[in-house]
Amino acid sequence: MYGIDSYDFNKTTKMLFDKLNMRIMNLSSEVRREFKKLYIAYKLDTNFADIVVQKNRLRISVNMKFNEVIDEYNICKDVTNLGRWGNGDVELFLEDICDVDKVMDIIRQSFNKQL
Question: What are the residue boundaries of the DUF5655 domain, all occurrences included (predicted)?
Answer without folding.
Answer: 11-112
